[in-house]
Design brief:
24% of the residues lie in helices and 30% in strands. The protein is an alpha+beta fold. The strands form eight sheets. Strands 24-25-33-31-30-26-27-28-29 form a nine-stranded mixed beta sheet, sandwiched between helices. An eight-stranded mixed beta sheet has the order 13-14-23-22-21-15-16-19, sandwiched between helices. Strands 3, 4, 10, 11 and 12 form a five-stranded antiparallel beta sheet that branches.
Length: 553
């Protein structure tokens, strides 16, 4: 009997397991997979990874259902019960097919297989990679903090959501003699503003200085309280000659020379670190840091759009750690779109897959290229935060419509939409928290997915990642201060992106499945009593079939 095939994609905060059992197509009683971790949870010798639903539906009181009795009916599953102390440790995952019926199932131990993994550190080869959790509505959140955390409990809850992202800027500053950057919003008074307050070196920030206009009139930039608070500690340079100064980066200098850079999608705000899905990178690369430093110096004088666009273009490739990177700093001249056309070209050349996680993308050629990837039968998954008016590109101050997360499953037409209105307070599934649009101290806009990344061929030896501050839109290309990074030749970092993406993807798919059940679109919200759950994945040439094979390599 053939054994299970396994491939692990590793993040510092979770393990994504891709699994396949080709013989499953021949077993009408194939009920899914049991997954055992050694060592287990909370110092146990071993533990079964839990399922959230069983053959009778969700577990009472939101309890875990061990996968040996409530098998995993997917070809992808993840272990997110990873603590800080677990990084660098080795775990063994044993995956076993389960057959039979709901009342009498058994594990086919002769078909079991194991994979041993060593969890990565958040900084490896000079590259730091940090993703937050950002799912207030998750069952894990409510189990840990209850429905309405307050006071110190709220701070702990926010740190749990930040998942280490809250430490990145303070740690970057603590290792710096000089730190200079460009930030869109600086409002986080839990971690980042105190870190600047304690900082003993020279610090300066270019910031978005546009006033906020609403029905009450014109108000100062949201950055003004931080500017006032840090007066004498940080030198601030206003920027108002673009639609928005949307960068989020810091450059570390030593002896006047740039040596490292911090960049990503996260605004320096409470919600940017916690409830909005975001990431940050740190790069110990003088050559890469020099590019950001030159950009920072240019922005300091508040130049016009034409000046910043004049010499725009992709940088030369730089070897940074185990990755090859290059950078583009929009805006571009009005009739050019070199930055985003390079991404379109790479998407069109995808061999196996495209995964995208984007805040309100509006570039038609890019979206067309992404969806054609799925139409060609290649693996395509996506999450899009879609709202009526983009709050980061709208200076009117008008309140936008509620956010909706669009979930794309392999094609443009095969999607679900999960919106704030679908998960109302008091109407959520048992064990789930109502998801507020912001946490205390946060902004008013209901943003769930704030990422700006596209990963091409993540499961191959030649992945390409596009990441940074830029929403894939006309404003990002032509009217904003932005940075876009291309990362090549680094399957290790691509695996982190893929693992973290699938965690978010499966969270919103679970919410969507519940919504469909509540609205009558799905007849059941429980495990299948037979092999019907995997039928599409075994039907040759279907998107599900190709995704199953791609992920296990």
């Amino acid at each position: 009997m053939a054994t299970v095939t396994i491939r692990a994609y590793l993040s510092p905060t979770l393990v994504l397991l891709a699994m396949d059992w080709p013989e499953g197509r021949d077993h009408q009683d194939f009920l899914g997979f049991a997954i055992k971790r050694t060592p287990g949870f909370k110092r146990s010798a071993e533990s079964w990874l839990p399922n959230r639903i069983g053959f009778n539906g969700p577990a009472p009181n939101g309890a875990d259902l061990p996968s040996n009795t409530s098998p995993i009916q997917k070809f992808l599953w993840w272990d997110a019960r990873i603590d800080d102390v677990d990084r660098g440790k080795t775990f063994t995952y044993t995956i076993t097919p389960v057959v039979g019926d709901p009342n009498n199932n058994k594990l086919l131990n002769q078909a079991a297989n194991s994979v041993k993994v060593t969890l990565p550190q958040q900084v490896e080869n000079g590259i730091g990679t940090y993703f937050n959790r950002a799912v207030v509505s998750s069952q894990a959140f409510i189990k840990e903090f209850g429905e309405r955390p307050a006071g110190d409990q709220m701070i702990r809850a926010m740190a749990w959501l930040a998942n280490g992202l809250e430490k990145v800027v303070p740690e970057f500053l603590s290792a710096s003699h000089e730190a200079h950057g460009a930030i869109y919003h600086l409002t986080d008074d839990n971690w980042i503003i105190p870190a600047f307050e304690k900082y003993q070196g020279d610090a300066s920030l270019v910031y978005d200085a546009r006033p906020v206009r609403d029905k009450g009139g014109t108000k100062p930039t949201p950055n003004q309280p931080a500017i006032d608070h840090l007066d004498g500690k940080v030198l601030f340079y206003p920027r108002d000659k673009t639609n928005i100064m949307h960068d989020k980066f810091l450059v570390r200098l030593h002896g006047g020379s740039p040596i490292a850079v911090l960049m990503g999608s996260a605004n320096f705000t409470p919600e940017g670190l916690t409830s909005q899905a975001n990431l940050l990178h740190t790069w110990k690369s003088p050559e890469l840091a020099s590019l950001y430093w030159e950009r920072r110096k240019l922005l300091e004088s508040n130049p016009s759009l034409s000046v910043t666009a004049k010499n725009s273009g992709w940088s030369q490739e730089i070897q940074a750690g185990d990755a090859t990177v290059r950078v583009f700093f929009p805006p571009e001249p009005a009739k050019k779109r070199e930055s985003i056309d390079e991404i379109v070209k790479a998407v069109n050349s995808a061999e196996k897959s495209v995964v995208f996680c984007l805040f309100t993308p509006t570039d038609a050629p890019l979206l067309d290229a992404i969806f054609k990837t799925g139409d060609k039968g290649k693996m395509m998954f996506g999450l899009v935060n879609n709202i009526g008016k983009n709050p980061e590109e709208n200076a009117s101050g008008r309140k936008p419509v509620d956010a909706k997360v669009e979930i794309y499953h392999r094609s443009h037409s095969n999607k679900d939409v999960v919106g704030h209105e679908f998960f109302k307070r008091g109407q959520q599934p048992h064990g789930f928290s109502w998801e507020a649009s912001h946490l205390p101290g946060g902004g008013k806009f209901p943003v769930y997915i704030h990422h700006k990344f596209i990963v091409i061929d993540a499961e191959t030896d030649n992945p390409i990642i596009y990441t940074g501050s830029a929403n894939m839109s006309n404003n990002a290309v032509h009217k904003n201060d932005e940075n876009i990074m291309e990362i090549k030749g680094c399957p290790r970092v691509a695996a982190i992106y893929l693992a973290e993406f699938m965690r978010l993807y499966e969270h919103y798919r679970a919410r969507s499945a519940w919504n469909n059940y509540e609205s009558g679109k799905n007849k059941t919200f429980k495990l299948a009593p037979d092999s019907s759950w995997g039928k599409k994945a075994y039907a040759k040439d279907t998107p599900e079939y190709k995704a199953r094979l791609n992920m296990v390599g």
